[in-house]
Amino acid sequence: MYHAGMSAPAxxxxxxxxWKVFAADGTEVxxxxxxxxxxxxxxxDGISIAFSALAQPRYxxxxxxxxxxxxxxxxxxSHQEAAQLQPYLQPATSLDIKPGDxxxxxxAIAAETRKIESGIVEPTQSHEHPFNLFTRIAHLLRRMxxx
Length: 147
Prior knowledge:
The chain is of the alpha+beta class. It is 22% helix and 24% strand. A six-stranded mixed β-sheet has the order 4-3-2-1-6-5.
């Protein structure tokens, strides 16, 4: 509940990587790694939390978020419950090849390979998977910049 003297409540759309995440008792559990939702439909699904610099992020559903204020997300979970959150997995990806592509499948695959090699996207995955070390390092750097 919002009281005078507290920071004003904030929208989930304002959450940034690097914001502090607190358990219900006020202890810090980590930092926001990503905000998960659909901005176009204003649907908030939850956040992924980095419990330490390079740890696999963990997922807190929107209904586990008690409040949001500038620079901080407060969970409705105890510190122990937060520590038991499930790992946040990267969603499955797919290569989208449209029937009308003039370059053909070979050109589409070559273009996708160039993106992967340049670091723009990760390789195509057919199922959810843990974040690899390089992705966790990239997220750490993003959290550091997000403050």
